[in-house]
Amino acid sequence: MRVAWFDAEEWEKDFLEDRASGMEIEFFEEPLSKENVDKTSDFDAVTVFVSSNLGSEVVEELQADYIACRSTGYDHVAVEKASEEGITVFNVPSYGGTTVAEHAFGLILSISRKIYEAVRKVDRGEFNHKGLEGFDLKGKTLGVIGTGAIGQNAIRIANGFDMDVIASDPYPDREAAKELGFMYVSTQDLVRKSDIITIHCPLTEQTEHMLSSEEFNQMEGTIIVNTARGEVIDTEALIEALENGNVRAAGLDVLEEECYIEDDINYLSDLEEKCDPQVILEDHILMNRDDVIVTPHNAFNSREALHRIEETTLENLREKKNPVNQV
């Protein structure tokens, strides 16, 4: 099998050298897009990370039989178009169950104990705790949106802090609820009752902007943590909620237009066909707020998780495991 491996990093080449027997892999450092899709000719499979954009135009040009996403989310791939073209799409559903949950709690603790502010204060030469009063997690209510592997691990961590946990999910896992001691509620009840909300659901048509003005208006000083996808939150509504105090603080590993966040703000007019310039401006507003901590889509990024991604991707291509569409 000939595989075009996009978004490749140097360590991947070494890691795969002795593990990819039976495959002929060509590595490309750049993401896959409509500008370079011609490089995929004569390959049986392409594998990509979330920075690649496989919209309908790209998928239509592919001659490969398989698209292997090196991620749990696959919203960067036009899956329906892939099905029409006879291309099977795979994902890596469970590589980051502990990894992402740990990062979410890193954001929660950074907010609850003002760790980031404390570090900056010491950097300025101010070795005192004025203005750094935090709050305990014990006894607080954590609302978990999405109770798959990541959400359940977040609940396990919350139990260690003696938090009360409620959760929402369109496909509730009753056995997990009994084992881990949490209660399922509606999303509306969750946003009203939670002190802290952590998001662990995929991005779908149903979850896009699932937290918007209607939900934020029901909150009272809630903390929002998002390590899922930026589009799950309406950015403009979040800024308004931070301004009026409905949201006390936010810890965000993802943003709505994060793929373009590095582009110079002076060239937004050139990006209008790809993105929403208004949302990019709103992303910058969030990044500059003192009550928001932003990390660069880094929740997945542990050594162990990265190795699991590589191994599962190889397994998917060899054994056709974890398909997300029917061909």
Q: Specify the CATH homologous superfamily of the largest domain.
A: NAD(P)-binding Rossmann-like Domain
User: How helix-rich are the residues, as a percent range?
Assistant: 25-40%
The count of helical stretches stands at 12
Q: Name the poorly predicted regions.
A: 264-272
Strand content: 5-15%
Tell me what the structure shows.
This protein is of the alpha/beta class and 327 residues long. It has 2 domains: 111 residues, Rossmann fold (3-Layer(aba) Sandwich); 198 residues, Rossmann fold. 34% of the residues lie in helices and 15% in strands. The strands form 2 sheets. Strands 8-7-6-9-10-11-12 form a 7-stranded parallel beta sheet, sandwiched between helices. α3 links the parallel β4 and β5. The longest helix has 17 residues. It starts with a strand and ends in an 8-residue tail after the last helix. 41% of the residues are buried.
How would you summarize what this structure contains?
This protein is of the alpha/beta class.
Main features:
327 residues, alpha/beta, Rossmann fold, seven-stranded parallel beta sheet, five-stranded parallel beta sheet, 34% helix
Describe the secondary-structure layout.
Layout: E1 2-5, H1 10-16, E2 24-27, E3 45-48, H2 56-61, E4 66-69, H3 79-84, E5 88-90, H4 97-112, H5 115-123, E6 141-145, H6 149-160, E7 164-168, H7 174-180, E8 183-184, H8 187-193, E9 196-199, H9 213-216, E10 222-226, H10 235-244, E11 247-252, H11 277-287, E12 292-294, H12 303-319
Parallel strand pairs: 1-2, 1-3, 3-4, 4-5, 6-7, 6-9, 7-8, 9-10, 10-11, 11-12
